[in-house]
Amino acid sequence: MKLALGPLLYYWPRQQVFDFYEAIASAPVDIVYLGETVCARRHELRVQDWADIAKKLVAAGKQAVLGTQTLIESESDLKTLRRVIDETGYLTEANDMGAVRLLSAEKRPFVAGPFLNIFNSATLGLMAKLGATRWVMPVEMSAEALRDLQANRPAGLETEVFAYGRLPLAFSARCFTARHFNLQKDDCQFKCLEFPDGLLIKTREGEEFLTLNGIQTQSSKVYSLIGEVGALRELGVDVLRISPQSSHTAELIDIFRARLTGTLDVPAARSRMAALEVAAPCNGFWYGKPGLDLIAA
After folding, report:
1. What does the alpha-carbon distance between residue 235 and residue 233 come to, in Å, rounded to a whole number?
2. What pLDDT does 88 receive?
């Protein structure tokens, strides 16, 4: 089973991004997803910058994958999408059907991202016919539902599961971070830069509820399948995805790697992770329960 680092979902200053991936180059991760997948207004890095980072990661022995924006809203978004596909030359993660159409038309292999919402074997088969060589399970899918899809998975198609990080739950044409500051989306003043792990919101009762990340809504808790590595292996999952956070990402990768190699048991892994997580863990979706639940493995 391989480890992947998912795309950076937050908006960090340019130098912080370069420093982050400089450290990742020596981390025990097999695949690194790159690119801006959340908001078109985030311009600290351009497509060429992401391609330059990809080149360095490939030289370090990683597979680099360039992700496409999830919500395409304008002609400029389409131009960026075409640049990611046409100019970088790296494997692409398609996060909307427009990207799938372009990649399929050019007979390019691609990763079917989690936001394509593949929930049945017919859709999975269609993606494979269009050129998908790997698919990423939607974050809300349960282990039982995955079992059914794995039983009918097209030959040669890899399965990747989001195994760690705040869950990317939804996207909107509106920017909730901007609205939080009573700003228009087009004049957001790049407030996301002030929240390297998103803006936590609470209910009126003071309970942590969700995390705002620009146009993306995330869970408040951190989804963690560190206790389910054995079950994931039994299901034939090929890749586990860890989502970047602003601190301790490399240490979290180390812990997952130790679980994969069997050099760390679950209680020890959870104990080490407790000091590194930005929020309490959850894993409810995996068990078909509310996502914020934490079920003992």
Report:
1. 5
2. 75
